[in-house]
Design goal:
Blueprint lengths: L10 E4 L4 E13 L18 E12 L2 E16 L4 E17 H6 L8 E20 L5 E5 L5 E15 L4 E12 L15 E13 L3 E2 L2 E5 L6
Parallel strand pairs: 1-12
Antiparallel strand pairs: 2-3, 2-10, 3-4, 4-5, 5-6, 6-7, 6-8, 8-9, 9-10, 11-12
Amino acid sequence: MLAVVRPVLAQRTDWGGPWGVGVGLGTTSYMGDLNEPNGNRILIMPESLGFGAKGWFSKGFGPLDLILQLDLGRLNSRDYVNDEQFRANFYTYGAHIRVNMNKLLMGNRHRVEHWYIYLQGGIGMMRYSSYLTDMPMDTLINDVGYKSIGKAMSLAGAAGIVYKMTDEANVFVSVEYNMLNQDDIDAKIKGGSNDAYIFLNIGFNYTFGNVYVSGGRRKSLLWGKY
């Protein structure tokens, strides 16, 4: 009598993770020589807020996501002492690494929850054009980036909270700080510290791909442990 042998679907364990896309919208806040104080010692963001948007592609590896990100928006502020104001348009593109802190801290004890906290850091290149005017007459004082577009390197750090609506669809809130290596984003060079901006945003991202592979079902590792 011959025994019937049934094929068993093998299971693979590796560092495979989902692909993802996302978008975010929010406010930008310039920090530099022309800071407009808000009179609040706790809230460091000035009164003059701009608009920003971002989009990205990501690939997961355990608790890490490798991200290609593009930010674009507007910065502006006023200097009431010297009656000056500036406006700038920019876009910043770069590579980031995001760390799922729930997975990182809990390891193989991690269970998928409806929310998680993440930290993110990266490097990018900023392109911008800005102009400085006086406030009474709006007369041009100086401009940067119109004849030859302004360029700066950006070091970014971010933190956020993600809420998982489904296995694929998530919403998030994040705050991102971009430190620049130039002091002329405001078209006014004082020889002081370099400029920076804060990007507070909310958005949506969607993950997809590679649930099944040739040879069996894929299991993603959580920091090297299933």
